[in-house]
């Protein structure tokens, strides 16, 4: 039976980042992934947006998360010779006079993330914000690069997790021919709800549908947000999204979801476009779209990393580093992230 320090279930953004941080600390790891094409990390547009929501607010610990995300991704790009993290300014079209007033009333700590601009390309009667520190992560390329690194370390296998396959023996966690000192579940929405070890955690996961569009005549140097968003991918190809469905939690693209996204975009996108692809995934959302890490209160060898929501590209590296440091005994968990608070 193969023995490792950590058995990580799920190779999405959370599992990939955690596993690489553990490897960097000299720990042995086995990552198990079911290669679900509809997993949220693979479907995600990978957007890093400094100011989000109707309130135009920065994310939790955005300075630290953004600084470390850029460092982490660029380091892996150099190591792999592959490009997957792309800086890209974001233009946010203000929706009405109330939102404009809300922005003008923000303090300097928030307003440093954006500035009013007349370079909107899109009609903006109440003005627009330009955010220079926006970016996007090509999640498919990133996850492939992470998997290749894990394979080189003999630390990756394909498999389907079931709690019934896990047993505990003399300080070891056993699962399908692998023994580990600790089992860490990084299963995204698939690992929330139900009757599993963490099934009682409150969550409000939401299905989101993303379109690939052929859209000619727009400035491709920036991404645009208004009612929905469009993000250039080069050569007239754009991503467009998205919606939130809290009832139908599957990764099957639906005509209703497609029409919802199209209705949003047609209200403000100034040029014709056509749909060339359609994907769906479920965002794992716990509390206020803030990730959660920690160990099970009764099973001290079973851990949990989940809840990245729509900000996984921004937060995953920072939170993974913190959790890896905790697992290696370097410090206590940040109370803002600690599973015990839930």
Automatic annotation (TrEMBL):
On whether Oxidoreductase is a keyword of this UniProt record, the answer is: yes
Q: SUPFAM superfamilies from the entry? A: FAD-linked reductases, C-terminal domain (SSF54373), FAD/NAD(P)-binding domain (SSF51905)
FAD dependent oxidoreductase domain: from which residue to which, for each copy? Answer: 5-325
Q: Note whether Oxidoreductase occurs among the keywords.
A: yes
One GO cellular component term of this record is: cytoplasm
- Which InterPro entries does this one have? FAD-dep_OxRdtase, FAD/NAD-bd_sf
Q: Which domain of life does this protein belong to?
A: Bacteria
This protein's UniProt keywords: Oxidoreductase
One molecular function GO term is: oxidoreductase activity
Q: Please identify the protein, giving its name as recorded.
A: FAD-binding oxidoreductase
Source species: Oceaniferula marina
């Amino acid at each position: 039976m193969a023995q490792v320090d950590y058995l990580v279930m799920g190779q999405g953004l959370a599992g990939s980042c955690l596993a690489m941080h553990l490897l960097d600390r000299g720990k042995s790891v086995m990552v198990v992934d079911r290669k679900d094409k509809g997993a949220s990390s693979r479907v995600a547009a990978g957007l890093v947006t400094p100011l989000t929501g109707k309130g135009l607010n920065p994310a939790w610990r955005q300075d630290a998360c953004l600084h470390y995300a850029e460092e982490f991704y660029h380091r892996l790009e150099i190591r792999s010779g592959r490009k997957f993290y792309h800086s890209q300014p974001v233009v946010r079209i203000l929706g009405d006079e109330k939102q404009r007033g809300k922005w003008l009333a923000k303090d300097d700590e928030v307003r440093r993330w954006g500035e009013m601009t007349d370079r909107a390309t899109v009609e903006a009667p109440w003005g627009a914000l330009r955010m220079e520190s926006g970016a996007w992560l090509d999640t498919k390329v990133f996850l492939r690069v992470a998997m290749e690194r894990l394979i080189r370390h003999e630390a990756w296998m394909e498999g389907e997790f079931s709690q019934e396959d896990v047993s505990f023996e003399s300080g070891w966690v056993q699962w399908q021919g692998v023994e580990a000192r600790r089992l860490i579940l990084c299963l995204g929405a698939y690992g929330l709800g139900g009757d599993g070890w963490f099934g009682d955690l409150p969550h409000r996961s939401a299905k989101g549908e993303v379109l690939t569009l052929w859209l000619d005549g727009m400035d491709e140097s920036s991404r645009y947000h208004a009612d929905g968003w469009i993000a250039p991918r080069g050569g007239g190809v754009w991503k467009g999204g998205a919606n939130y469905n809290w009832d139908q939690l599957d990764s099957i693209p639906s005509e209703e979801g497609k029409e919802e996204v199209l209705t949003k975009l047609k209200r403000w996108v100034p040029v014709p476009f056509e749909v060339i692809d359609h994907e769906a995934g479920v965002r794992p959302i716990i509390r206020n779209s803030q990730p959660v890490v920690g160990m099970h209160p009764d099973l001290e060898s079973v851990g949990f990393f989940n809840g990245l929501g729509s900000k996984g590209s921004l937060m995953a590296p920072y939170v993974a580093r913190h959790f890896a440091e905790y697992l290696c005994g370097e410090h206590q968990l940040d109370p803002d992230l600690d599973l015990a608070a839930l």
